[in-house]
């Protein structure tokens, strides 16, 4: 099989969308999310590789639901999976428009409850110890009140809408360093008042919901099916040969960062109580317990693991786990795609211990090994505002300027398009 040299692929300017503001279109701005999938990339892929009439779009790493929102906005049925319950909550809310009049009525009733707030009622509340670590008492009591009010809602759509608004403001209202994607305390961070932050973000969400609701209503897309599953991309449970188009973006090799980044929501909403166990679910995590350095299906992957092993056996083992997990994902994609269907995979490379982790090339090998054929490979620059540019030279994880081992990365990524 002919070797594909990704290094010779030139950047395609038409895929950069440098001036694009699509992250705030429809419901995409409901919740912050690291390395967010750019909606315009998804929209362009849907236009180029649309499902057949009555067909289905899938995203195996649904994240905060960008693919599913765009699919619904374009009138196509969709299904997504994500291992992270915070992500599935966000996606479910973003893809579920609510009657704007009803939502405004419920919102006004919600904020009217602020007049009844009494901090003394929450002083003895049982909470996870990490909540007390991240939140000062007054902020903690007010967040607890917001959470209590949200859970009093009897309509699940309304309740989850408010829960996503609360989740979004947790970082702002905590001691978490605002400019950092990794858990880090800001000792001089000014206090943010949770009620005001909630009101402001809710109003923005309500405006977005109204636009999305009216768009779907106008185009008769309101009842277009959309389903999000909390599940594993390696074993989705999606029916064989049922998907016309896959549009997805696998996590970087340091994917367990998603567990850390969403810990505030996880603790508050009791989605987990042990962060280490939660990390074990993620693709390629060092917490998986796997020890093998063997990787099948890609000669390049074997070379990368060998180079890493000379510098760190532990990191080599983790990257081998990541590659083997991606190989399973490639096989799963081939299984669920219809004959003639397309897999569009947006994936980036990184560097760890000065070894290039060429995830895009390796995943391409896996997809070919699963029986898919190359349609097109696109290289695009990522707008810096969407991707942290500082990474630790040794671990490849996001970091900050105060880390002596930080390295500035000018990010780009590949869009691998394969056909079954």
Give structural notes.
- The chain is globular.
- The protein starts with 38 loop residues before the first helix and ends with a strand.
- The protein is of the alpha/beta class and 420 residues long.
- It folds into two domains: 6-97 and 228-401, Vaccinia Virus protein VP39 (Rossmann fold), CATH 3.40.50; 100-215, no CATH class.
- The chain contains 14 helices and eleven strands.
- A seven-stranded mixed beta sheet has the order 3-2-1-4-5-11-8, with helices on both faces. The chain has a two-stranded antiparallel ribbon with strand order 6-7.
- Strand 6 and strand 7 (355-357) form a beta hairpin.
CATH fold-level assignment of the largest domain: Rossmann fold
Q: Mind telling me the CATH class of the largest domain? A: Alpha Beta
Number of strands: 11
Helix content: 25-40%
CATH superfamily of the largest domain: Vaccinia Virus protein VP39
Task: Characterize the largest beta sheet: strand count, sense, and whether it forms a barrel.
Answer: 7 strands, mixed
Distance between the termini: 17 Å
The poorly predicted ranges are 385-389
């Amino acid at each position: 099989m002919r070797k594909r040299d990704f290094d010779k692929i030139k950047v395609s300017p038409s895929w950069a969308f440098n001036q694009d503001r699509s992250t705030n279109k429809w419901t995409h701005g409901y919740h912050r999310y690291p390395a967010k999938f750019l909606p315009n990339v998804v929209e362009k892929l849907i236009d180029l590789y649309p499902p057949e009439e009555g067909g289905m779009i899938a995203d195996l790493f649904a994240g905060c639901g960008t693919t599913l929102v765009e699919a619904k906005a374009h009138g196509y049925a969709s299904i997504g999976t994500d291992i992270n319950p915070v992500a599935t909550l966000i996606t479910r809310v973003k893809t579920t428009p609510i009657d704007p009049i009803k939502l405004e009525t419920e919102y006004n009733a919600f904020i009217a409850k602020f007049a009844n707030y009494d901090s003394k009622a929450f002083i003895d509340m049982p909470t996870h110890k990490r909540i007390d670590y991240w939140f000062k008492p007054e902020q903690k009591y007010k967040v607890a009140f917001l959470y209590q009010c949200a859970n009093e809602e009897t309509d699940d759509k309304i309740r989850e809408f408010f829960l996503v608004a609360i989740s979004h403001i947790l970082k702002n209202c905590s001691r978490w360093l605002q400019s950092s994607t990794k858990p880090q305390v800001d000792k001089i961070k000014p206090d943010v008042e949770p009620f005001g932050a909630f009101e402001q973000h809710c109003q923005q969400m309500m405006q977005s919901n109204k636009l999305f609701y009216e768009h779907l209503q106008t185009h008769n897309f309101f009842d277009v099916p959309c389903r999000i599953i909390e599940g594993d991309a390696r074993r989705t449970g999606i029916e064989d040969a049922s998907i016309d188009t896959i549009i997805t973006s696998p996590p970087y090799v340091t994917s367990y960062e998603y567990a850390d980044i969403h810990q505030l929501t996880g603790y508050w909403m009791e989605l987990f109580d042990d962060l280490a166990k939660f990390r074990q679910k993620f693709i390629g995590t060092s917490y998986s317990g796997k020890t093998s350095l063997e990787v099948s299906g890609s000669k390049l992957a074997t070379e990368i693991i060998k180079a890493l092993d000379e510098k760190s056996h532990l990191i080599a083992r983790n990257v081998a786990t990541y590659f083997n997990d991606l190989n399973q994902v490639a096989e799963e994609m081939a299984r669920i795609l219809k004959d003639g269907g397309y897999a569009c995979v947006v994936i980036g490379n990184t560097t760890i211990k000065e070894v290039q982790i060429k995830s895009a090339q390796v995943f391409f090998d896996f997809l070919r090994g699963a029986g898919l054929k190359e349609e097109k490979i696109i290289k695009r620059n990522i707008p810096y505002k969407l991707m942290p540019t500082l990474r630790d030279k040794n671990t490849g994880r996001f970091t900050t300027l105060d880390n002596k081992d930080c390295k500035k990365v000018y990010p780009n990524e590949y869009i691998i398009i394969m056909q079954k």
